[in-house]
Design goal:
Elements lengths: L1 H11 L5 E5 L5 H9 L4 E4 L2 H12 L8 E4 L8 H4 L5 E5 L2 H14 L3 E7 L12 H14 L5 E8 L7 H21 L8 E3 L6 H6 L4 E4 L1 H4 L5
Parallel strand pairs: 1-2, 1-8, 2-3, 3-4, 4-5, 5-6, 6-7
The structure holds pyridoxal-5'-phosphate.
């Protein structure tokens, strides 16, 4: 079933758009099924769960080559459970976190790929930067490059959790417009190319708005087993 789900998503996903298979709350066996079907990029949102899965997979014979994206809220005291293992942190939602990731990178001789999470959804509970904060960070990075151990690769966002398609379109439109605005404003930031929007319920709309990454869990793995 996982393999069929992946096949039907890839059939409709434009070839330039990266699919992150969100495996949070799903067992190792589901990840392996997806790997066997050819999937290489996976997303997790809880530090402990990520670290445990990475270690268990590494210990398996013929350990699969997986690229992990971290997509959940990340606390500074959990960086060491996440940063050694991931290809990208998509969910950088505060200046404090950005600074701490940069410092971890410096201390460990690494440059960490990150996306800045933009807050657009109607829900107050959702995380992320507002427009002016993103502008400030990017202008500073373009000007004096204060964050030398992070590579700011683009924006991530989540639309309002609603069945009203117009609201979802408004959210994606706002992120996509701001992403383009920032790119035009800071052409020297050549790494700033990724727009991660779209989940199981709205990824096809996200693609219309220029998503370069979609993060899909339920439509691949089924309902999460909390
Ligand atoms: C869980 C999660 C997803 C995947 O959600 P589905 O609706 O299951 O596709 C995508 N992005 C983030 C940030 C998530 O936490």
């Amino acid at each position: 079933m996982i393999s069929e789900n992946l096949t039907s998503i890839y059939k409709e996903l434009p070839s330039g758009v990266k699919l992150v298979a969100v495996s949070k709350f799903h067992p190792l066996g589901s990840i392996i099924e997806a790997v066997d079907a050819g999937q290489t990029v996976f997303g997790e949102s809880r530090p402990q769960e990520l670290e445990k899965k990475v270690k268990e997979l590494e210990a398996m014979p013929g350990a699969p080559e997986i690229k992990w994206h971290f997509i959940g809220h990340l606390q500074t005291n959990k960086l060491k459970m996440v940063l050694p293992y991931v290809d990208m942190v998509e969910s950088v939602d505060s200046l404090h976190l950005l600074q701490d990731i940069d410092k971890w990178g410096k201390d460990n001789g690494k440059v960490i790929n990150v996306l800045l999470e933009m807050h657009v959804a109607a829900e107050e509970s959702k995380q992320g930067f507002v427009e002016e904060e993103l502008l400030d960070i990017l202008l500073r990075q373009a000007d004096t490059h204060p964050f030398r151990n992070v590579r700011i690769c683009g924006l991530m966002g989540m639309a309002t959790n609603t069945d009203n398609e117009e609201d979802v379109r408004a959210d994606f439109g706002r992120i996509a417009d701001y992403f383009e605005y920032l790119r035009d404003l800071c052409p020297e930031l050549t790494d700033f190319t990724e727009l991660s929007i779209g989940m199981s319920g709205d990824w096809k709309i996200a693609v219309e708005y220029g998503a370069t990454i979609v993060r899909i869990g339920t439509a691949i793995f089924g309902e999460r087993q909390y």
